[in-house]
Amino acid sequence: MGVRAQQKEKTRRALVDAAFNQLSAERSFSSLSLREVAREANIAPTSFYRHFKDMNELGLTMVDEGGLALRQMMRKGRQRAEAGGSVIRISVDTFMEVLDSNPNVFRILLHERSGTSAPFRAAVAREIEHFISELAHYTEEKAHRNPELARAQAEAMVTLVFNAGAAALDMKKSERKVLADQLVMQLRMVAKGAEVLHQKVDNR
Question: Which parts pass through the membrane (predicted)?
Answer without folding.
Answer: none
